[in-house]
Amino acid sequence: MTGRPLRWPELSIACSWCKAQAGDLCTNQRGTREKRDGTHEQRRAAWVIAHVVCPDCHQPVGAPCRAAIAGLTLTGVHPTRDAEAVRTQPAARTPHVEALGDQLTIPPTE
Ligand SMILES: [Zn+2]
Ligand SMILES: [Zn+2]
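^ thats the input. predicted complex w/ zinc ion below
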């Protein structure tokens, strides 16, 4: 596990879906194959939730997003919250994120 680059910032936390440990790539549900094209939505959402307030539903850090419509269960987080995490978390500025640069406004590092 040591020396493996953190390609996605959410690798810094464990995945609640596939039980991948912090620093390890996500795997399929049986844990037999690494997922190399990203992480599970739940893991990404948990990372976003742990770092920023949602600009959309104003849920505080640590609280999951609330759906605007009562009774509707929101999976993941609002896209604005994800973008906010990318904008404010230095760990999010990975090559993977840079590739999305046209859609995201990332201010220069101070
Ligand atoms: Zn996972
Ligand atoms: Zn939200």
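The chain has three helices and no strands.
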